[in-house]
From TrEMBL:
Source organism of the structure: Lysinibacillus xylanilyticus
Taxonomic lineage from the root: Bacteria, Bacillati, Bacillota, Bacilli, Bacillales
Protein name according to UniProt: Uncharacterized protein
Length: 225
């Protein structure tokens, strides 16, 4: 009888162990599943935020690149206007030289009027294309007006004309090179640069091209901005 009793106790003990395992094992499984789900959910949220950030950054880059492409078209258009302005001024000056040598005739007078009208149109287009608040634009506008006055004066000698032309071409080159540098920096950074950074670019390019001329422009025109 005693042995039977002991056997039953052992059987009951084993059953209880099995029951305890049956209870604990599913619990552990549920806890594991919960923490796994929580970790996965957190990871998904993080990935979602990273994805949104990447999409936002990529979107900004695309906008900057699109604007950059438009700026390149703009730069080329401005360059063509600069070339046209310079060519018309040269034509007017040549006609002035011919007038001084041979006097005015109907043909020369007609050319002078035509060139003068074209020159004014090109000047107006340049002024519309450029930012009037930027120092080199202001400087160029002033120099172009002076050039126009000089080429309408038959007494302007070539040497004087050439001095004015050099300053106009200098300003034109600074504007074009600065705008190219702006496009490169904005494309590299993936964001637009502000007015302060653009002034730095003008300052850098002006110094590189002609330190002396740049200093005179710096003193008069950069203080206005």
């Amino acid at each position: 009888m005693f042995q039977i009793y002991i056997s039953r106790l052992m059987i009951d003990s084993e059953v209880k162990k099995l029951n305890l395992v049956d209870v604990i094992t599913p619990g552990i499984g549920l806890i594991t599943i919960y923490f796994s789900w929580k970790s996965s959910n957190k990871s998904n949220k993080t990935n979602l935020k990273l994805g949104e950030l990447q999409d936002s950054t990529a979107g900004k880059h695309r906008i900057v690149e699109n604007i950059g492409a438009q700026r390149i078209v703009w730069i080329n258009n401005v360059r063509e206007l600069f070339v046209e302005f310079n060519s018309l001024c040269a034509e007017l000056q040549i006609n002035n030289e011919l007038v001084l040598l041979n006097g005015v005739d109907e043909n020369k007078e007609g050319k002078l009027i035509s060139y003068s009208q074209q020159l004014l149109k090109v000047m107006n287009n340049i002024e519309l294309y450029l930012n009037p608040n930027e120092p080199y634009s202001q400087f160029l506008f002033d120099r172009m007006k002076e050039m126009r006055e000089k080429v309408h004066d038959v007494n302007t000698v070539y040497h004087m004309f050439n001095l004015h032309r050099e300053m106009v071409v200098f300003a034109q080159n600074v504007i074009l090179k600065a705008e190219w540098r702006r496009v490169k920096k904005e494309t590299d950074k993936g964001e637009f640069i502000d007015k302060k950074d653009m002034l730095k670019i003008f300052n850098e390019v002006g110094k590189e091209m002609n330190p002396g001329a740049h200093e005179s422009i710096l003193e008069k025109y950069f203080k206005k901005t």
